[in-house]
């Protein structure tokens, strides 16, 4: 993997990053942190013909996916994305974000505390999800929508200092709008797929300025760390 830009550690451009070194180039700048990992094609699609990220991601993107998961204390994902992508229990707890409080089938058999739900008081599935996950694992954060600022606070209070979100596009848009994202990690895969698939953000307009911290390349896949604040030298 070749280093193209490094505003964080000031390594010389062209440096060859071996796989065991990749972790150091994705090490969090500060804790607590909420960062998001997404993938996109060159023409801006967040999914391919299958409607899933699996039809556009590649082995290079998977390297960063694995590194970020290995460092995370908790994974935050929209319940719809978890259902569509077939999420199963991971090595760290998974926090589902849902206004309906509906737990995807493949996550229903997880050990206690391995799946949490961030939802709202009017969620139709609230009572069932409390029975399924245990009331201590259901965070009621707002009346009719999930308060993402409070969600971040509650997760930090539980000791989850390195929070990784994997989307989907609506959740990423809402996290950015709430001002709780410090870092966006994005893989740009060398493909164009056209179609009507979503971008990595979907929803009402917003404008969030980003600063590039690190840019890597392998097999024409670009891997970037973007910050919602200028990275410290």
Question: Could you characterize the architecture of this molecule?
Answer:
By secondary structure, the protein is of the alpha/beta class. It has one domain (32-227): Dihydrofolate Reductase, subunit A, CATH 3.40.430.10. It contains six helices and ten strands, in the order E-H-E-H-E-H-E-E-H-E-H-E-H-E-E-E. A ten-stranded mixed β-sheet has the order 1-9-10-8-2-7-3-4-5-6, with helices on both faces. Strand 9 (211-218) and strand 10 (221-227) form a beta hairpin. The longest helix is centred in the first third of the chain and has 13 residues, at 59-71. The chain starts with a strand and ends in a 6-residue tail after the last strand. The mean pLDDT is 96.
Brief characterization of the structure:
The protein is of the alpha/beta class. It has 6 helices and 10 strands. It has helices at residues 22-25, 59-71, 79-84, 126-133, 148-157, 169-178; strands at 2-6, 33-41, 74-78, 94-97, 115-119, 138-140, 162-165, 183-189, 211-218, 221-227.
Features:
alpha/beta; 233 residues; Dihydrofolate Reductase, subunit A; 24% strand; 22% helix; 6 helices
- CATH topology description: Dihydrofolate Reductase, subunit A
Shape: globular
DSSP strand tally: 10
CATH C-level category: Alpha Beta
Provide the structure class.
alpha/beta
Q: Whole-Å distance between the termini? A: 23 Å
- Count of the domains: 1
Percent of residues in helices comes to: 10-25%
List the secondary-structure elements in sequence, H or E. Answer: EHEHEHEEHEHEHEEE
In terms of per-residue confidence, which ranges show pLDDT below 50 for 5 or more consecutive residues?
Answer: none
């Amino acid at each position: 993997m070749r280093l193209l830009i490094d505003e964080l550690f000031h390594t010389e451009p062209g440096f060859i990053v071996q796989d065991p070194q990749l972790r150091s180039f994705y090490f969090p700048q500060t804790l607590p942190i909420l960062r998001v990992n997404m993938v996109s094609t060159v023409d801006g699609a967040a999914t391919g013909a299958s409607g899933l990220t699996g039809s556009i991601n590649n082995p290079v993107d998977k390297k960063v996916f694995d590194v970020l998961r290995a460092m995370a204390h908790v994974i935050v994902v929209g319940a719809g994305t978890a259902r569509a992508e077939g999420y199963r229990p991971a090595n760290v707890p998974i926090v589902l974000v849902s206004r309906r409080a509906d737990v995807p089938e493949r996550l229903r058999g997880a050990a206690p505390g391995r799946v949490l739900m961030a939802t709202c008081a009017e969620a139709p599935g609230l009572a069932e999800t409390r029975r399924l996950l245990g009331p201590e694992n259901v965070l009621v954060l707002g009346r009719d929508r999930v308060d993402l600022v409070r969600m971040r606070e509650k997760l930090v209070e539980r000791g989850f200092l390195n929070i990784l979100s994997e989307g989907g596009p609506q959740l990423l848009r809402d996290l950015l709008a709430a001002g709780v994202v410090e870092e966006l990690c994005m893989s740009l895969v060398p493909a164009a797929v056209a179609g009507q698939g979503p971008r990595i953000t979907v929803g009402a307009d917003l404008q969030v300025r980003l600063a590039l911290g690190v840019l890597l390349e392998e097999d024409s896949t670009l891997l970037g760390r973007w910050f919602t604040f200028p990275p410290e030298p």
